[in-house]
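step: validate -> pass
step: tokenize input -> pass
step: predict -> running
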Amino acid sequence: MDEPISPNTVSEKTVLSGGCFWGVQAVFQHVKGVSRVISGYSGGTKETASYEMVSTGNTGHAESVEVTFDPRLVSYGTILQVYFSVAHNPTELNRQGPDSGPQYRSAIFAVNDTQKQVAEVYVTQLNTAGTFGRPVVTEIKPLAGFYPAEDYHQDYATRHPENPYIAYNDLPKVSNLSRLFPALYSPKAKLVTAGAALD
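step: predict -> pass
step: emit ->
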């Protein structure tokens, strides 16, 4: 008799950058099929993976999130759909909303060749269709390393909804997720920090 499949048996990861990691993390924490979203840094070295150093804009890092998902429940293509349509504006070069600098660039760090190819095709389709009226500037590179951010950055939007930055820039993204992708939206955020998920 076959063993029942554990919900944690199948998982895939990808690393996405789209401005301040608070908002990108908040969006993907509400996506069904996603089990974990960690804020961090990607694109530079381990030695420079700290908020203080990344904030200089000189490390090569982008503020990123590592998304762990079950491809049986949510496909990589759907993850990209949420990323491009809800999580950030992919036409802004080296900035996102009020934040500017290469650390806030739009970037996909693919964990394998398949992810890289799918992302490249996706961007080509968006540009060919003129979806945004401006070219998508998202950088697509193989993942060289992901370094989790400091603890105080994890689950930031969920823990500080009253913060004016969060209220203005990030909570509307979560609302857009629930409006545009109601079948994908989970009202409870999957948090990194200990404790039950928050509504």
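step: describe -> The helical segments are 21-28, 51-54, 76-87, 113-129, 156-159, 164-180.
step: cleanup -> pass
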